[in-house]
Structure prediction request, 1460 residues.
Amino acid sequence: MKYLRFLMIIVSLCMISCEGELDILPQQSIAEGPATATADNIEAILIGAYDTAGGDANGLLDDGNYDGDLANIAVLFGNTDQVDWNGTFANLRDVYFKQMVNNNTGATTAYGNFYLMFGATNTVIANLDKFTDQTRRDRVEGEAKFLRGLGYFDMVRLFGQQYNAGGGNTQLGVPIVLDLPDATRLIPRNTVEEVYTQVIADLTDAYNKLPDSNGIRADKYVARAVLARVYLQQGNFAAARDAADDVIQNSGHSLMPNFNAVFDSDDNTSETLFSWVITTQEGQNWHVVHFATEALGGRDGDISIADAYLDKFDSDLDERKNYNYFSDTGLRLTSKYTRQFSNTEQIRLAEMHLIRAESNFREGTSVGLDPLVEINTLRARSSAPALGSLTLDLILNERELELGFEGFVLYDYKRTQRNIGGLPYNDNKLVFPIPQSARDRNSLLDQNPGY
Amino acid sequence: MEVKKILILLLFCISITSVLAQEKTISGTVTDDSGSLPGVSIIIKGTTTGTETDFDGNYSIKVNIGDVLVFSFVGMTTKEKTVGIPNVIDVVLIADNVLDEVVVVGYGTQSKRLLTDNVAKIDASQIGGISTPSLQGALIAKAPGVQITQINGKLEGGVKVIIRGLSSVSASQEPLYVIDGIEMNNRNISSIGANLNPMLSLNPNDIASIDILKDASATAIYGAKGTNGVILITTKRGKQGKSQISIDFSTSYGEPTNKRDWLNASQYEELLRESAFNSGFFADQAESDAWVDGRLPRYQGDDDWRDLDTDWQEEAFQDSYVQDVNVSISGGNEKTTSFISGSYNDSEGIVRGNSLKRYSMRANIDHKVNKRFMLGLNSSYSSTIIDRIAGDNAFVTPLQAIAQIPTSAPYLSNGEPNPGTLYANFLLQDRHSFRKTAIRRILAKVFGDLEILPSLSFRSELGYDYLSQTVDRNTGRLAPFQSTNGQTFASDDGTEIISTNNYFTYNNSFSESSNLNIILGMSYTRLKNRTTSVTGDGFPTDDFRSISSAATISAGTGTFTNWAQVGYFARATYDYKNKYILKASIRSDASSRFGKDFRNGYFPAASVGWILSEEIFLQDADILSNLKLRASWGTNGNTPTDNFGSLGLYGGGGYNGVSGISFTQGENKDLKWEETTQTNVGIDFGFLNNRISGEIDYYIKKTDDLIFRDRVAFEAGIPGTIDHTVLKNIGNLENKGFEFVVNTVNIQTDNLTWKTSFNIATNDNKITNLPNGADLITGRNILREGEPINAFYMVEYAGVNSQTGDAEYFLNTENPDGTLNRGRTNDFSQAQRVILGNPNPDVIGGLSSTLNYKTIDFSFTFQGQWGASLFNNAGTFQETGFGNGLDNQDVYIYNNRWQNPGDITDVPQARLFNNNGHSNSSRYLQEADFIRLRNVTIGYSLPENVLEKMRMSKVRVYVSGLNLLTFTDYRGYDPESSSDDANTNTNVGNTFYSAPPAKVYTLGVNLTF
Prediction:
């Protein structure tokens, strides 16, 4: 019978619920609860948002959007006579020929990545209450809203038709998501007007909350610079002018002394307002991949300069006309993208000068600087001779000379209603298709006409 | 005088009679085939007088001449011996027929006669002597419905075991392995893509029996892990009685089961010239010949290509030698019995550079502390050191050497391998690099059994399984693809599993004719894994190999993972009058891998049996000795393989050197096990005193809640390992089939026994429901509702246009009336894909036969599979007529190529660098039906009288062969060998430079003292 007592002890030990043992947590990841529990973690998620945008995060070594892909797409898609495509990537080839099909892999990846970035920014914004320090909280909120505003702007001008300056804009844009990630979400597309409204609201809020400078991350003037771009795209020249003026006057940035100096560094220069950071350990510079020779880390010139581009220059003294080199196979390649570990998609001060000049010209004002003086100052730093007088065409051309291959032609031609590659600016094939894969998963998404 | 003669005669007769009528004492020893038998009952026939053998198997008994002694023992055939002049009668008893066998089921045993489940039992005698490095190889063709495939000819290669068809797509497809009641870790732990079979660490000679649980009633007791079947391994234990020492040596020679015919130098040159001429790139023959003459010297090394004729296949294969030694000691007394063994195996594989050494030791001890309490210990340690070679997909894997050009030299004149070959020369890798994988395993178990009441006992078991794998890989500067001055990779992967089972067993007989057995208990298992690795680059010379000598540490990883599972179970078995049997069980399982909302799974099962032959109306039927009807039903689970698949997770990362975290996995609180419901009906039959016996079974397995990655809207902001998905249980599949076993005792006399066993099983596998009903295509496999899992899906090759020599494909586009357009086209992109075959067989079978004549034993096993196909992923390089590169071609291409209009053949015209038929179509899909002589053994044992003089109980010499003959129409290396690199759960049935299995000749000796 003494065995029975002994037995009872054993039995009860065994029958003790081991349920608690089953709550096992992973070691290389943390669960959602702990991830959003502290201010430090929320800021880490914000860093993760930059990482997602740059394509190195989410457990995927995927292509991001801001590692050069968006600008490259705009260069190819918006091409009329600026570049030639020599590469083998089928999805980029279709973009170049404006013959995309609705399962284009580039469009699909881009679409998905934007929403992963929004997932991160929305998570940050929803958890701001974790911050006790108001300054830090404002900065984090500003950065998240900056990323979100920038993202929706880039999305809507790729997947939706150009914003009609007169207003209305009931054409379909993209679905706006401002909430936390949710596997059950099924929502239709918002209109282009709605998206622009959201973009401006986010960037304005970011401008109000961000500090004047923030290292390599977004600051007040970066937000304003993007706002300038947005207003320009909308045809709201007065607002564009004032925003560009604010950035030029107050951001503390200045033009580099010559054109080469703008691109001849792995880090940001004094002209750089913002860029996405690539290092030897993280990230991949897709500008270099598609624009440079193999020796420099590229694919030997997938995108080369067309002869017609050089005809746009009025002077051989212009440093920008000669800012290129030849590959072994005789392709003329831009010297802007020759450093494998340089940063991508930079927002630079030269663009602000061009926006201010164009807006002043259109509005007949001289806020900050007379437009002709402004254009000539910009030209002077590239040793280009001064222009005698300005026309709108000269200003638009100057944008192509200064910002060539940086992804501006597509949007400039659309907002000025010029033909792109023989197609009218509002052609169905000049917007991206809503990816078939996205529509398979969400039947509320209407497809763009023509796809 | 006559009176005297008569008197003397009478006296003589009387004395004889008295002698005859005298009692005398007879003594002797009773043994079975492994040693002395204590406790054998010896009775004088017709009386109640008798005795028993002592624990040395000796007996003595007073008898009269002419008495008949009856020797009987449980499980043995009773023997009778008449008392004559000799005073010593030794008897050898033979194990009885199958019906009185004991079968291991979960947490207990059951007699085969009363079993209502479907369990296949294989014992040590059927496993021993088969020279394969891993346990599973010894089980091939021995159990119906159990398909075992050794993936390819590498020693450490994975083994795929499928019981009654595949029951999962994304979760585990492997059965559960349990050793002596403790769950075994069977994760593929390979550090490279190619599989590594963890069962290598188990010495097959330690195994007493294997019981394979196939139907739900047997497997349900294992709950959420039982869906794919359960393999119970029982190791040998000591027996009371005289200690027995066994020594087994064997030495083997192996070679590939099949070599293919590749072009020799003159055939290669001829075909290359012809294909260059046909290519359309050159104006005339002079130009195309000049191109060939200019190209071939590139690969010749230091010789002239015209003088070379290299057989690269011979470089890749090597003669394989295996030495194997096994020593075991078993014995004990009434209180303690023990089984101790040690073994050493040294195997060279058939592929160059592949070898394995294994040491193992085991000690199994049982100790009766007192009448009620027993303690036991099982412990084993093994160390397996493997020289591995690259996975099938790597350029430097030896088998890819068959692609090299015969007019290129393998070595330069200085003895170094030729670096200028068409593809990377694996000989450089072989000479300048190594990959040593060491697997050390400790398997231990401590248990106690307490008898509380005569009918109630309690058993507690604690098990420990520690599997450690260390990999040291070094690539020297001269190895292919090595750009830094050498690179070393070192990793350490340690997995520890602790488990405990605690259960009560209640065993009672009510009246004489009914018995009840109940078990009730719990089981807990926990796994912890820690893996680290370091990579270093840049060494001063190739003599420096360890990480500390590296100039740069270029990469490092470190991860931890764990899981745990708790289960409670109960089972009751009731039999009445030895003919009506009822069994029911239930198990509940909770696992850390299940989503929060589905923590507990319940798995019930029940089975019934009716032994018809015990019924009075059948009992006298002489012909029918056994007829049992049985039926079972139950549910099982298949736990998700991802330890944290149900959680929403954030992972670490960084931006510009600052750490950040990002969302990596969406949550699914509902994630649960895949559930299989299986129904099985069967008949056990036996005729003529079980001279003919067997089973017929029919089963249906329906699996619900298959785990798939369900696509989520992009706007949801959810990432997923593949493409914005969340793991969900949404899918169904079904398996049905027949199993048929027949065992016959063809001849049984004192000197000669001949037994045969035949088994055949069918499996019909079908997916019944997919998420959104949509096809899921991975490479050339498709998951489609109504079709088998991973059916082959590709363009259908139609043959060659006899006028043009163009390869043609069937359009297979859909006509308006729904039929398929069987027109032909030479444009691959015009042709539609269709379902063309199944990577898994429909029918598998085995035939074994054993013959014993006096002291000679002879046995063989045939294995057959029908209905599977295999796709040669390398066909697009090997069978193209140089359309896709300068790879060496199969002689089949040379012998059958189209050359002139009017030729009828299935090999298109050879056209250099033109795609004429080398797209991935069914041209490279072949049926892989085969029959294989899996093993054959002849043994000779020394007769008893000689053994007695030598004081040994067994000396047996044997010769055996493994995979000696293969009958198949399959043209590739082997109908079973497939890629160890490329195949996943959804991309299957591919072979890619995969080595065939080995044909092995073994000479061995078994000694028992």
